[in-house]
């Protein structure tokens, strides 16, 4: 390929000249090709690898030089002699003559360089190559990566690093290549090559260690091996990228969401590092955006644009605080360098003015931002203020829904601050949905009939059930009033709503307890749910309207749990509270069908509804499920299991003396799920647990960990003396029951957990505020970033454990149905799953989402389509030989695809493989017969015979069909809504699969009978013969088997001709002919017996009687009748035999199962399975071949070391490599 001209000073160093002329030199790298160049070649090869030389991937090059100059220019390089020769010949034909015209050497150099650059530019333009995607250096690395590891172009390289790989006790210096789906290593030292390829999806542990010998070491573990890498130039960057890529793989295993590159990244700057790829920049940007969203609780689709150091003027303490400003599409945020000093979130929807103030020595480069609630923020010391203002202006123009907020904002600002009750409307000035309530007693406004006529509660349920008389006043109410005043003073000083300054003082107020009146609004604010609600007006009402009256599995579970949600609270002892809870849970299940509904969501949601309006409770639930407790509420509660592992790690660090005892009793795993999933709401008295929820919405998951550790620490002595887990659970249960909130103004609500415990001595009361403060004092050092690091480690462990459990369950389910051993089944399942994953990486004809659904039963979770099956068929199935393999794979796939959904599960796959490997002679022959008698459903030219074949096909079905059918008919969304248009379409369009399922149910109970198998017509028989001849192409007894096959086919042809004696006259119409063919199976028993009893000799005599005087009606077996024993494989390759004389050219169409009517195939000709079986039994060679069992172990080993490269349309080039995992 042509390359941009680069200067070379020493042309002969490590290169050998092969061709030369006055202007150009073609060179080959020493050590490349035959002979290897001896010791010098080995040294050169080693240097190329260690120094990352492009000569390793391009060992040929062309240099340009002028006759009188010592400076050379590289203008082309190639990976093969053919490629470089094409470039050389083009130069000789197109440039040499032209260059002789020039007189000045500088002109020649300028011309050549310009010409080469023009060719490259033209190539890039015609191939749509973006110049700014990757640097030339990185493009070389990509080419090297694809060549060394034989990866298709779809496999994207992210980055590569120099390091050492420890193979045994010997380090191998080389290069670590990190791509989206694989970790690869390559080393070449003195002629010894080392390659390693590991799928990220197979990684079970990834850790960074330090020892005396290896201060920087990365250990990568899979299920069956461990790999150590060291001597990194930048180990932190490398390890972070490895973590990120492993995380992407785990996400794919969890919910099948593959990686999609973000094409909207800004262009590279001129001073960017040479080795940074566009993909690496994309992943870096994602990681920064994730940290940014987590820090400020922003919506999950928010992307960070950039950040810069600056100072912020804080009016509450009259200081300029040093920190960082973050700018994204919809927000401007600030956090101080000192973590707890101050943080700030300014939604662009709230911004009214952005202006550059005048610079001065005291305040250089200031920027003023004003908002709708009359707050002004002053930033200074901005490095690139003009550029920043331009970016903010651009984002402001893109911000939508500004008019909506301008119209509604006045309502929340006009509320009176004198009335305590009006706080419900005024805490969040930028929340238009929260208009002030006129008074607490205004309980008749329970529902709001909005535009869509969906009744939703407009008040928090708590306001309707607070039993407080006007004259009632006690110390608790006084304390509550003081708390409210403290918060009002805080709003006055620090601002109110989303844009308020969040400081250590805010945290102190939260730890003292949020007032009942303000709780829901402050939860919205601190969780970030207010932002999603403000930017999605009307979204909840629409969801409620669409989901009303719709039923699926989630709604059934919701109905079952509604009356178990805080049943002790009066708000949920009547239909109004229950209806609100039903609407919120159903709307969320409708919004996120991947989660749908999970137990514990009802408890959390019921508490949210007590303190927040219905729509606000919905958005709080969204924040919880999708951001603050990720993956907690999916079908396998993966997030909670991950945090359980994190909690065990933290317990090991912070309460080591208790850790061993807890592990022995398995207490941590028992308690953590119930504590974490419900945020202590199910294990603590209600009025105490809501204080925990206050802190959780402000600080996040670290509060839950801190509190859990405090509970263990407080009971350490009692727990150490426990003898079993029951005793430990009782101690912890009593302790949590005794946690009280003495400040609560609510009437006492009996705690369900305490009612169920035994009548032992109650634990002394524990004040919730003291417990929370104690948790901060003892365990407040736990950092959010450390928790995220631990979560990554545990996520690998948990997801891989789930995958192993799935594999064990699948194998246990089918091990009794197949002769394969458990180990063989596990290996086959691994290959089956790996093929599914490969198609997710590198594309497939079907959607991976439809083939992997973790919510389905174990056997249905991974399914493969035809293209994937072809790969496994070629590697594992014993009949896969030669060019006929793909055609045979299609036939086998259709037979195994019982529910006709174009996908097969693992049981169906094993069903076919076990017949081919371990079936007896009759089973194998029946399988072979059935794959050819099955008609092509895409060409339904003979519908009646198709029905006949299909009816039999589904009689011999394996036991899982009913579950498979149920799974295929099951929708993962709401039947009436999510897929409404699809369902209507399906009902209107006749679908043969529906009829096949019905036939399947009708015929399932029947016992299999050979005589029920449909007859094989002539075109199907031709295909069967082709399969037989191709099947033996690699067998040691090849010639003997060919002779036997020729004898059998001759015999069967004769039988078919005899069968025509009992068929209808030839002058019948097609329609009558078809009717007659349907009737044949029911009346041909006697005929079949007659055929079976007749000897080949008699049959031949009978056949001779069929020959007419017409030359065109030569019998179809006449081609084989003479000299059939000498027939070779080549004789049948082009379909020129076994077909009547007028149909020779049409054999090609027969590959898909049936031939068009225009081809002169004899419709009356047919054979039965009994005839086929009897004929094969006459030939000992065929009997031995089909009776011979196939050892699957060797095929599994071969399949593990061989991977098909690229798409199905590419060549089947395979390579062997040391694959791990």
TrEMBL record:
Keywords: GTPase activation, Repeat
Source organism of the structure: Cyprinus carpio (Common carp)
Function summary: May act as a GTPase-activating protein for Rab family protein(s).
SUPFAM superfamilies: EF-hand (SSF47473), Ypt/Rab-GAP domain of gyp1p (SSF47923)
MF terms in GO: calcium ion binding; GTPase activator activity
TM stretches of this protein: none
UniProt KW Ubl conjugation keyword: no
Ranges for region Disordered: 414-451, 1066-1100
Chain ranges of the EF-hand domain: 884-919
GO terms (BP aspect): system process
Limits of the Rab-GAP TBC domain: 513-700
Composition bias type Basic and acidic residues, residue spans: 1084-1096
A Pfam family recorded for this sequence: GRAM
Domain of life (superkingdom): Eukaryota
Biased composition regions of type Low complexity, renumbered to the chain: 414-427
Listed name of the protein: TBC1 domain family member 9
InterPro entries attached to this UniProt entry: EF-hand-dom_pair, EF_hand_dom, GRAM, PH-like_dom_sf, Rab-GAP-TBC_dom, Rab-GAP_TBC_sf, TCB1D9/TCB1D9B_PH-GRAM1, TCB1D9/TCB1D9B_PH-GRAM2
PANTHER family listed in its UniProt record: PROTEIN VASCULAR ASSOCIATED DEATH 1, CHLOROPLASTIC, TBC1 DOMAIN FAMILY MEMBER 9
Keyword tRNA processing attached: no
Amino acid composition bias (Polar residues), ranges on this chain: 428-451
